[in-house]
Amino acid sequence: MAEPVQLQFRAPTRGMPPTHLADLTDDEVKAAVKEAGLPGFRANQIARQYYGRLEGDPLAMTDLPENLRATVKDALFPTLMEPLRHVSCDDGQTRKTLWKLHDATLLESVLMRYPDRATLCISSQAGCGMACPFCATGQGGLDRNLSTAEIVEQVRAAAKSMRDGEVEGGEGRLSNIVFMGMGEPLANYKRVIAAIKRITSPSPEGFGISQRNITVSTVGLAPAIRRLADEGMHMRLAVSLHCPDDELRDTLVPVNNRWDIDEVLDAAAYYAEKSGRRVSIEYALIKEVNDHPWRADLLGKRLRKKLGNQVHVNLIPLNPTPGSEWDASPKHVQDEFVRRVTEQGVACTVRDTRGQEIAAACGQLAAEER
Predict the structure, then answer these.
(1) Catalytic residue among 108, 150, 153, 282, which?
(2) Do 93 and 34 belong to one domain?
(3) Which residues of 252-272 are buried (b: 16+ CB within 10 A; e: fewer)?
(4) Would you say 140 is a known binding-site residue?
């Protein structure tokens, strides 16, 4: 006989939020429903409402008897986050949301609609502890990890907005998720993996978004990259490298002092081998800091040696934060950088930048609110 599921609900204290439906596995949801005094079949009903119909408020779950809805809300649906504001640009097809969490912590997500897809950039932490000096989030420091449900709720809200036609372009479907918002996803490893499983599982256990349409970005926590590879999943890995030499990277990405470029690229190659997915290298091009021709040559050579044809460089024109000493490289420098990396046999393209006029670089909106 199977052991009964033991539930450990979190109290709503300063810090991690109270336990929500999206924090729980299927078996844990069933146990929570029974603990609330409801028949077991309600668990599937509630999960279908949340993951299938994208309904986050039990009071609006019309297939639940009205006298049970408050009970379900108390048991499984504490208020985790509320939108403080939405700001839009790109003719309404890019929308950034500033969220206020239960403990007044601020959080950001960005929904971007393209002709062939809709991508949500989500946060995995409130703030970030990686301290990269050119990043608004990194300069603000780490408030705390997000719970699994706080990550999942960003996705549910965006999927509902797309379905209901709240983003310019009419009704649509959320298709892609990138963990490139606030925080270092692999520093909140267990909750991020749990959230990905909710996001990618079919209803009623999840939203049914393909693992192949999920990108996990990291500054290079080499052991965690290897651990991710061993999960047997198929997300795309993006490594925020930003320079090809350890001397500069020690300054731009301080975690490099712990895991240097060779260790990070070895781990990335292991991920590519295990997952069968090409690795993306993120490179924010900063004027007269990391945009030199010799650095482009070195980047191409190191990537070709470590990853062969299993790598692609995303060159990102820097979105400067107010008061920053950093600036974006001129276009002719950017074009020469692309040419030189490509000449080494490594695919290199410039990322389509969105949302600069709405402070869409991670952490900018939260910093303004503070």
Answers:
(1) 108
(2) no
(3) bbbbbeebebeebbbbbbbbb
(4) no
Q: pTM of the full predicted structure?
A: 0.92
CB atoms within 10 A of CB 35: 12
Asked if 253 and 337 sit in the same domain, the reply is yes
State yes or no: 234 annotated in a binding site.
Answer: no
Q: Name the active-site residue from 121, 243, 348, 362.
A: 362
- Report, in angstroms and rounded to the nearest whole number, the Rg of the chain calculated over CA atoms: 21
Active-site residue, 362 included: yes
Distances (CA, A) of 43 to 5, 49, 103, 204, 283: 14, 10, 28, 10, 45
Q: Is residue 132 part of a domain?
A: yes
Structural domain that includes position 25: 21-76
**Which segment of 152-156, 229-233, 324-328, 358-362 scores lowest on mean pLDDT?**
358-362
Distance CA 302, CA 361 (A): 28
Is residue 357 pLDDT above 80, yes or no? no
Task: Please state the rounded mean pLDDT for residues 183-206.
Answer: 97
**Residue 206 within a domain:** yes
Instruction: Tell me the mean pLDDT in the region 326-336.
Output: 95
Within a domain: 358 = yes
Q: Is 121 labelled as part of a ligand binding site?
A: no
Beta bridge partners of 109: 97
Say whether 82 is catalytic.
no
Contacts of 137 (CB under 8 A, 6+ apart): 127, 128, 182, 183, 362, 363, 366
Q: Is 242 annotated as a binding residue?
A: yes
Residues 6+ apart with CB under 8 A from 88: 94, 95, 96, 168, 358
Residue 325: per-residue pLDDT:
86
Say if 272 falls within a structural domain: yes
Looking at the fold, whether 69 and 175 belong to one and the same domain comes out as: no
Rounded to the nearest 5 degrees, what angle is found at the Cα of 113, between the Cα atoms of 102 and 327?
Answer: 80
The rounded distance, in Å, linking the Cα atoms of 79 and 210 is 28
To the question of whether residue 183 is assigned a binding role by annotation, the answer is yes
In 115-219, the DSSP E strands lie at 117-121, 125-127, 142-145, 176-179, 214-218
The token pair at 81 is 């986050």
Count of structural domains within the chain:
2
